[in-house]
Amino acid sequence: MFELTPSTWNQLPKVIITDEPESLLPFAKADDNCRLAFGATLALLNISDLGLRAQTIVVDARRGIITTPISTSRLNKRLVQTLPYGYVQVRDMVVAKLGASRTKLPIITAQCGLVPLGAVTREATDWIATHGLSQLCRDGDKTRFEYQNGLQLVVPKRYSAMDKQVQRVLKLQAGYRQLQGINDQQDVYRATEARYPAYNNRINERVIFEFFKSFRDDYGLDLSDEDIRFYQCHYFGKLEGEDSLK
Q1: What are the tens digits of pLDDT across the range 169-210?
Q2: Angle subtended at Cα 41 by Cα 152 and Cα 15, rounded to the nearest 5 degrees
Q3: Are residues 81 and 10 in the same domain?
Q4: Helix H or strand E segment including 88
Q5: 242 lies in a domain?
Q6: How far apart are CA 32 and CA 190, in angstroms?
Q7: Would the pTM of this model clear 0.70, i.e. be above it?
Q8: Which among 145, 143, 5, 137 has a CA at the least distance from the CA of 61?
């Protein structure tokens, strides 16, 4: 799932210096409504400081190098909405169970991972993939991510810091697999990207809403449908698109 598409990458650089994103602009294709495919996403680079309409460069194993006016934060919010409904709560359960730090918390599934290079509370932060990684190397005062598909990303962070991030991702992924009852050999990429498309999340959202309404009615709680909708969206997050809870 992490292979580079030859027809796309034949003319593209295989070594990317992430703190020199302007060098990628001549190779980039524009996509105003870019959406991430988790297993194919290798990097999100913030370029909001370049004074361009584009805000982010996406490095994608299938589609190549993409520019988009969507911020890295917004792209990741859209990505999370393609994962199983309640994903954030499951991840937080794993973090709590392992006693892991919540600083620079990565986005993970059983096999895929994206680690932030800065604070995740910022609208624009660079993110680097850990899936398909073959090795992590020191490169002066930077760190080189070498992937099984031949791509290399050089990031402006010390090796010790990035190694700590990668090791944390591996521990969180092991905890995620254990909590979900998934073994290491299962095709988890297909499970997260094919079995849980957006409409499945809509169904899950509606089922939970109807459960809370039934619970309210059975116990005579003083809650309106709007109250239930508010608390559900506050806890699980609001899905994009037409509101299914009206």
Answers
A1: 999 999 888 877 765 555 444 444 444 455 456 667 777 887
A2: 15
A3: yes
A4: helix 87-98
A5: no
A6: 26
A7: yes
A8: 5
